[in-house]
Design goal:
184 residues
Length: 184
């Protein structure tokens, strides 16, 4: 199985595994109400984020022993986001993506750039056949990002989850390796 050499770099970004020193930057993201609005948990305390970092720091690749890649996204050395790719079972050759970015960097193309790299890793490095993503249907920004990545909407599940006292719809997007077009 492939071993990744970190940091991974794109035109403007650096992607690397999380480190203990990321606590303040991650809390600045996950501690916000607006970031967690469409997620199924409330704003996270500093202790919650420390526990999260403990769980995600080992997620540095996908092979027979590891099922997830979760990376910090940095712009000019500052952590601005969190991107992930996780295997839905090695025998199925499918994965799912996830992403969370600090609102201060929204609408700058960083999430699109980072997620293009995650799709490249999923298809070209890890050999997945299909990669999907899900979002709350009210989250137009996440749906728009998946569409910009060339993913197509495959499903709209009505009132699929009860989150924060409200029944919410769920959108599912996906792209096949045969449809994927790497960024030039």
């Amino acid at each position: 199985m492939p071993t990744l050499a970190f940091p991974l770099t794109t035109e403007r970004l650096s992607l690397r595994p999380f480190v203990e020193g990321d606590l303040d930057a991650m809390h600045a993201i996950y501690g916000r109400e607006d970031v967690n609005r469409y997620l199924d948990w409330p704003p996270q305390s500093r202790d919650d984020v420390a526990a999260l970092l403990g769980r995600i720091r080992p997620m540095t690749g996908i092979d027979q022993e590891r099922a997830a890649l979760r990376l910090a996204v940095l712009v000019a050395g500052a952590l601005v986001g969190d991107v992930s790719l996780w295997c839905e079972g090695h025998e199925r050759h499918q994965a799912e993506i996830g992403f969370v970015f600090h609102p201060d960097v929204h609408r700058r193309g960083y999430a699109t750039e980072a997620m293009r790299e995650m799709l490249r890793l999923g298809f070209a490095v890890f050999g997945f056949h299909r990669i999907s993503g899900r979002c709350d249907a009210r989250n137009a920004a996440s749906a728009g990002l998946m569409e910009r990545l060339g993913m197509r909407r495959e499903a709209h599940f009505r009132e699929d989850a009860f989150i924060k006292g409200v029944w919410t719809d769920l959108l599912v997007y996906a792209v096949l390796v045969s449809e994927w077009r790497p960024a030039s």
